[in-house]
Amino acid sequence: MEKKNIDWGSLGFGYIKTDYRYISEYKNGSWDEGTLSTDDTVRINECAGVLQYAQTVFEGLKAYTTEDGRIVTFRPDLNGERLKSSAERLEMPVFPVDRFIDAVVETVKANQAFVPPFGSGASLYIRPYMFGTNPVIGVKPADEYQFRILTTPVGPYFKGGAKPITIRVSDFDRAAPHGTGHIKAGLNYAMSLHAIVDAHKQGFDENMYLDAATRTKVEETGGANFLFVTKDNKVVTPKSDSILPSITRRSLIYVAKEYLGLEAEEREIPFEEVKEFAECGLCGTAAVISPVGKIVDHGKEICFPSGMEKMGPVTQKLYDTLTGIQSGKIEAPKGWIKEIC
Ligand SMILES: *Cc1c(COP(=O)(O)O)cnc(C)c1O
Q1: Residue 184 is among the residues annotated as catalytic for this protein
Q2: Average pLDDT score over residue span 263-284
Q3: For the chain, which terminal residue's Cβ has fewer other Cβ atoms within 10 angstroms, N or C?
Q4: What is the third-level CATH fold of 165-327?
């Protein structure tokens, strides 16, 4: 397979058109058989449900090359399950999980030439998504939908090492109790744009959202879950019904317990407790873990002992172990690595 002539190491996180995308259409109560297309445009009615009432959900995962030259992806079954629960919450038809996995495999296979080589730090980002396509003007679910998968090569998240970031406690809320914070829906991101643009203006990398009801408990950032390490090396992560269940975070908790022999727990975390922690990181597919060096709460700074130069030691071990599992250097738990070709 001849690779595309791309400078893999200097890729950022942006859209680059690849050769094929997957499309399946839902009409009259069922999904069609699905197809690959070379057309990178979508043609829908001006009154489509997605355009008027934001009926859209998505997923994000990566395909990459292992040391021995295989192209693989990480736990796509969990992305398929999560897309299912996102769709159900927005009254959309479910794209079956087994078909989701097959479609991911088919799309990546067709775009093999865009999967970055081992060692480049780059990967092929996979974006499955679904949206209502037929005209809807009275507020109700659409009757017709498209499920699509686009892929785009993305660069290494950290160029020249993972530098800890500074985040602020946000005055905006991300998700209401009993709302949609636990699903991967575009609407959660639309309303976070103002908060992140403002955070950047003020010199912060990210927003820490607290629970909307009491503003006393840690939730997550706009696109990543928190992971903390206590001074006695226990890994803790917030538990809340309005947090998006990160696959990376769930995998890291497993790695902490089963590979590193650490105690790990998911529980409510009062913001008051944050200053007691030794390490802090953000977890998600994009970076696996981004270390957090400092949290600013309305001028009051919390500086983690791990500092602003590098990841804390436990965070680093978690990062090395999970990325080792993903790249094939460390044996993966059964079912975690899906071989594409
Ligand atoms: C996608 C996402 C995450 C990270 O989930 P992963 O499955 O680890 O990529 C965390 N928080 C939010 C709000 C997200 O949308």
Answers
A1: yes
A2: 98
A3: N
A4: D-amino Acid Aminotransferase; Chain A, domain 2 (3.20.10)
